[in-house]
Structures are given as structure tokens and as C-alpha cells.
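Reminder to self: C-alpha cells first, then the designed residues, so the page reads top to bottom the way the pipeline ran.
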């Protein structure tokens, strides 16, 4: 039997190295599993909890679509769609919310972090994990490949599946498991977790002067050029390691430990890696951007395939709880 995989990325900004190495790279690679049946979507309903400007939301949605396709998403092997094109998911979210206690949502780290950062919480932000649970459960996937920061949301999804099945004495929902990438946390230019909301990102689209300026600004300590340096605690080395082979990593680590190399040289090596790694992506992205009609067609085709599955699960859930 095929292994269904599902994941989503919010269209809440431009995608960056953290999104790529923490999530998207794995999504693309999973297409090669012989029995994989991947479903990937652009979480535009979720993005509405933070982006409330129509032009920007639209631009980000198109940007995420272009990024995935340019990075290697193959619509013949993956079902790729916009969350809002499958409205069944919002109906299911309501049904799950009705059997979920407030306490579960009040414990969500992501919600608490956003409130601590000064965001005035909307009802939608509080309800975010319920919509995410519906996103997942409606497709009955076995695995949900995500970064470490999403694990709690997957655990909440498992809880909600169980609440529903127990309340209505049914087996409509299947327990999904998180699938973590090896790259748990990519550091940003300031050494904190790279994130759209911290202004510390290296975006996938950056090139030329902008990329150079950003890489040169990556925070390092003040060890003088001639002194030995510790690669293990250096943000530049951590970022370089994402791109480099084991031998290349060892070679750079040796130069750190030997002393006599400034951080500027390590930054140049990192810059070259980023330029080379993403050059084919940038060319393909520019090409795809000339034909947005094709991109739209891919998304609508994906939505039709996703809807067919979502419709069946929603019907089962409605029967189980007495709506039908
Ligand atoms: P952001 O924090 O920039 O808003 P999202 O929350 O939209 O990113 O994350 C999209 C995906 O990328 C998630 O699966 C998340 O785990 C992953 N991700 C985001 N930032 C990083 C990072 N710095 N390191 C590893 N994974 C990340
Ligand atoms: N919350 C996820 C993030 O910020 C995005 C997301 C929404 C998602 N629905 C999902 C991820 C369902 C996996 C499965 O990255």
C-alpha cells in the first residue's frame, strides 16, 4: 500500500534557508520513495493570521508556489495545492473544534510565543492548531514531515483524532506521525533560529549584492584572525555545513582550529556555496514566473485531486457525528 505523506508551508513571507533545509528539501526528496504518495500544500488560510494585506498575501502565495516548483516539486508525483482551494478542511476544523478542550489549545507553544512577542491574538491565531489538525486528518497521511517547531502541533493533531474517534465511537481518523529532518534548526544571521518573524533570514531568492551583504553580516565572535577558532559554535560554519560534503566540512574545520583564517574567508566560502547551490533554482524560478497560468493550472489540478480525498473523509466524519 502507498505511504501517504502530507505537509504544508505557510505563505507568510519569502522562503529562507531554514524553510528549505528544515522542511522543503525533505519534501522534495520524499517524492523519490518508491511507494510515496505526497500531498503538499500552501497554507494560505494559516498565513491570514499574520499577513493581513491582500497584495502581500497574494504575492507570497505565488512566491511559495514558484519556489516549490523551482526547487523540484514534480506535480506528476506530488499533489500540490492551495489550502483555501479545498474548503472541506474548514468544515472539518469546526467539527474537531467542537470536541477539543480549550486547555489543549492554551498549551500551544507557538501561540504563546507569538503573544509573548506582542502580537494581539485573533481567534484565528488561537484556533490555528485545529485548522492544522483538520489539514492533516482529512488526508489520513501516515507521516507529516516538518521541522522540530511543529512537533507539538502534530501531537495536538493526534489528540484531536482520538477525541473525535472516542466521542463518536468510530475510527474515522488515523493517527499521523511527525517525520523530522536531520536539520532540526538552521541559525539565522544573528545566531537565533532563522525565522521570517525575526528579520534574520537568508532568503532563497537573494543573489548578488544583497546576498553578499547578508552573508557578510552573519554574526561571529571577536576571536582575532591569527587565533584558533571553534567551528562548533560558529554560525558561519553551521550554515556552510548545510551545503558542504563531509570532506569540505573537515577541511574548513581544520582551518578554524589552525588559526590564521579570518571569519571573512569562511563567509566567502559560504557565499560561494549558496550562489552555486541555488543558481539552477533561480534560473528555473525566473522561467516559471513568465508563465503564471501554468502555475495556476498546476495548483487547481492539485486542488481537484486533494478535494476528491477530502470529500470522502468529511463525509465519513459527518456520518459518524450525526450530521448525515
Ligand atoms: P518561519 O519561522 O520563518 O515563519 P514557518 O513556521 O513557516 O517558518 O516554517 C515552515 C517550515 O520550515 C516548518 O516545517 C518549520 O519547521 C521549518 N523551519 C522554519 N524555520 C526553520 C529553521 N530555522 N530551522 C529548521 N527548520 C525551520
Ligand atoms: N504550521 C505549519 C508551519 O508553520 C504550516 C502548516 C499548516 C502545516 N498546516 C499544516 C504543516 C499541516 C504540516 C501539516 O510551518
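Designed residues (324 positions):
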Amino acid at each position: 500500500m502507498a505511504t501517504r505523506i502530507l505537509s504544508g508551508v505557510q505563505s507568510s513571507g519569502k522562503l529562507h534557508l531554514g524553510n528549505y533545509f528544515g522542511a522543503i528539501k525533505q519534501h522534495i526528496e520524499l517524492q523519490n520513495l518508491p511507494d510515496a504518495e505526497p500531498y503538499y500544500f500552501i497554507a494560505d488560510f494559516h498565513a491570514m493570521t499574520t499577513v493581513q494585506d491582500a497584495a502581500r498575501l497574494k504575492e507570497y502565495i505565488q512566491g511559495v508556489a514558484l519556489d516549490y516548483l523551482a526547487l523540484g516539486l514534480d506535480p506528476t508525483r506530488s499533489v500540490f495545492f492551495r489550502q483555501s482551494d479545498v474548503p472541506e478542511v474548514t468544515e472539518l476544523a469546526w467539527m474537531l473544534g467542537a470536541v477539543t478542550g480549550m486547555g489543549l489549545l492554551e498549551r500551544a507553544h507557538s501561540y504563546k510565543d507569538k503573544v509573548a512577542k506582542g502580537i494581539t491574538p485573533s481567534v484565528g491565531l488561537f484556533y490555528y492548531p485545529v485548522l492544522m489538525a483538520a489539514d492533516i486528518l482529512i488526508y489520513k497521511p501516515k507521516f507529516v514531515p516538518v521541522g522540530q517547531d511543529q512537533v507539538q502541533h502534530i501531537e495536538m493533531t493526534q489528540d484531536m483524532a482520538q477525541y473525535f474517534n472516542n466521542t463518536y465511537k468510530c475510527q474515522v481518523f488515523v493517527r499521523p506521525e511527525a517525520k523530522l529532518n536531520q536539520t532540526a534548526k538552521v541559525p539565522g544571521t544573528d545566531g537565533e533560529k532563522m525565522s521570517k518573524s525575526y528579520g534574520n533570514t537568508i532568503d532563497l531568492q537573494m543573489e548578488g549584492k544583497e546576498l553578499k551583504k547578508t552573508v557578510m553580516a552573519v554574526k561571529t565572535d571577536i576571536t582575532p584572525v591569527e587565533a584558533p577558532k571553534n567551528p562548533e559554535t560558529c554560525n558561519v560554519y553551521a550554515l556552510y555545513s548545510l551545503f558542504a560534503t563531509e570532506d569540505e566540512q573537515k577541511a574548513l574545520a581544520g582551518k578554524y582550529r589552525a588559526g590564521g583564517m579570518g571569519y571573512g574567508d569562511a563567509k566567502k566560502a559560504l557565499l560561494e556555496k549558496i550562489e552555486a547551490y541555488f543558481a539552477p533554482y533561480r534560473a528555473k524560478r525566473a522561467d516559471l514566473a513568465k508563465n503564471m497560468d501554468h502555475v495556476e493550472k498546476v495548483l487547481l489540478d492539485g486542488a481537484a485531486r486533494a478535494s476528491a480525498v477530502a470529500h470522502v473523509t468529511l463525509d465519513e466524519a459527518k456520518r459518524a457525528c450525526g450530521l448525515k
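The domain at 3-186+291-321 is CATH 3.40.50.620 (Rossmann fold).
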